Amino acid sequence: MATREHFRVAVIGTGFGGLGAGVRLRREGVTDFVILERADSVGGTWRDNSYPGCACDVPSHLYSFSFAPNPDWPRAFSGQPHIRAYLERVTDIFGLRPHIRFNSEVEEARWDEEARHWRLRTARGELTADVVVSATGPLSDPRIPDIKGLETFPGKVFHSSRWDHDYDLEGKRVAMVGTGASAIQIVPAIQPRVDRLTVVQRTPPWVMPRMDRGINAAEKWLHAKVPASHKARRGLLWLIREFQVGAFVRRPQLMKATEQIARAHIRRGIKDPALRAKVTPDYTIGCKRILLSNDYYPALAAPNTEVVDAGLTEVRGSTIVTADGTEREVDAIVFGTGFHVTDMPIGDRIHGVGGRTLAEHWKDGMAALRGSTIDGFPNLVMIIGPNTGLGNSSMILMIESSLNYLADYLATLERTGAAALNARPEAVRSWNAELQRRMERTVWNTGGCVSWYLDASGRNTTLWPGTTAEFRRATQRLKPQEYEVLRGRTERTGSSEASAEVAA
User: Fold this and answer.
1) Which of 10, 219, 294, 347 would be 129's cystine partner, CB 3.0–4.6 Å?
2) Which tens digit of pLDDT belongs to each residue from 127-185?
3) 222-238 residue pLDDT tens
4) Is 222 a domain residue?
5) How far apart are CA 373 and CA 361, in angstroms?
6) Per the record, a Pfam family (predicted)?
7) Is residue 239 assigned to a domain?
């Protein structure tokens, strides 16, 4: 006989989603759970992304858990160190550390159809769990394009989310590949230090002014002593963003007013007409993620910066070559080229009914019932699943709604005595068909751009085409008719997390 640990719930990841799941489980009275983390500390994307200038583009008081308000945010838009410190505090305040196993990357999760539970193989051993909560997030695995000759580059190469802090950029010739959310923060942070900065731009982003400021002592005192004031501030920030949703999802023509503000922002930051033309997008604002920065355009206009508006196609020794034939010698290449969002790598590691991987199941595009559950993958619940992303507000709101759904999912298992619930294929199809129907007139689908919101077939499988309040209503309660109930839970001895199994 061999003993393998068993848990009621296994959570994957310690970002906002994973830590939030841990807190919600404890609040629901579930203490028989483990949180598996591949790194040696908590934080998820806010641990991994530590590049110069890294900060959030959602106001601090909205980018935090409603159950863990933070009156001490230092700025309206906080930087990465403060957000990571907040997550560390949440971990300690809610007693999550005893549940976390660091350096425990999940190498495989396989549904055992006979035992009606999941078998997980991690870097530190094997375990089983009745329910698996995947909170790996879409911004966790960096994407570096396949560039001819990159492997022969003699200098330094790294992705923005794997920043090499031991490499000194001072006086170096640096190529910044990409002009997305990370790049517009990195460029102004490193431009004064480098000898020459080449920004390789395939598609220019729309950039709006960043209404950032320090939060003074009086505000912090008020929020700490009068919690209702903090709640009111958060509510106002939320309400403003809820009102913006209509322009994104129903009437993209309303984005024209916002576009005029962005054009004025370009004119203020860049005086050279030729450079202005290079950085002015030709698609509707909002089609790609709207970025916030006050210093990006001045950094592009600096004497030591050059914008090459063509994609990187080849590396020849220490020379980068772009699609327009431009060649530049560089000492370092930094990729700000995003993440595996619509093809999440963990999909190859999760095996459902019949051994089919999630990647195989999603070969024609991601889809999940209410952004959480997938047919053929019983008792797998996702946090930040397909079509739960936002284009204008805080993902923490969506995470908390998904946690409501998780809580009711577990309560349904207990109430019915079921071993597992399996989303019905027709329920997933119906939910996804309605999402895609609503997506047709959104700015993300009609704005004339190609973005990471879209998968290889051009479908938007990442964003939510509605308000956060609407998503909360949709995930408040599980609908039993959308699930097949699986009986026959295996018995386990004792009150602990261990079950005996016959050794192979």
Assistant:
1) 10
2) 999 999 999 988 888 999 999 999 999 999 999 999 999 999 999 999 999 999 999 99
3) 999 999 999 999 999 99
4) no
5) 13
6) FMO-like
7) no
Q: Which of 5, 30, 39 is nearest to 96 (CA)?
A: 30
For 457-494, the pLDDT digits (tens) are 999 999 999 999 999 999 999 999 999 999 975 444 33
Are the beta carbons of 284 and 255 closer than 8 angstroms?
Answer: yes
- Say whether both 329 and 478 belong to one domain: no
Closest CA to 289 of 47, 45, 15, 57: 57
Looking at the structure, tell me whether residues 271 and 156 fall in a common domain. yes
CA distance 177 to 174: 10
Domain CATH for 105: 3.50.50.60
pLDDT of res. 3? 58
Q: Are residues 88 and 205 in the same domain?
A: no
Rounded Cα gap, residues 233 and 210, in angstroms: 18
- Domain encompassing residue 305: 150-211+250-335
Q: Among 300, 335, 370, identify where a domain stops.
A: 335
Strand partners, 156: 332
Question: Does residue 316 sit in the same domain as residue 392?
Answer: no
Burial 214-253 (b: 16+ CB within 10 A, else e): ebeeebbebbeeeeeebeebbeebbeebbebbebbbeebe
Residue 137 confidence (pLDDT): 87
Q: Which of 504, 467, 404, 304 is nearest to 28 (CA)?
A: 404
For residue 10, give the nearest of 130, 167, 180 by alpha carbon.
130
- State the sign of the Cα–Cα–Cα–Cα dihedral 71, 75, 78, 84: negative
Residue where one domain finishes, among candidates 335, 358, 374: 335
Tokens of 385: 């699943």
**What is the biggest distance separating any 2 CA atoms in the chain, rounded to whole angstroms?**
75
Q: Mean pLDDT over residues 406-416, rounded?
A: 97
Tens digits of residue pLDDT in 24-59? 999 999 999 999 999 999 999 999 999 999 999 999
Given a cut of 80, is residue 500 above it in pLDDT?
no
The secondary structure element, H or E, covering residue 101 is strand 100-101
- DSSP label at 417? T
pLDDT digits (tens, 9 = 90+) for 256-313: 999 999 999 999 999 999 999 999 999 999 999 999 999 999 999 999 999 999 999 9
Are residue 269 and residue 382 in the same domain, yes or no?
Answer: no
Same domain, 51 and 122: yes
Is residue 490 assigned to a domain? Answer: yes
**How many structural domains does the chain have?**
2
Same domain, 277 and 302: yes
Is residue 220 included in any domain, yes or no? no
Tokens of 407: 């809580």
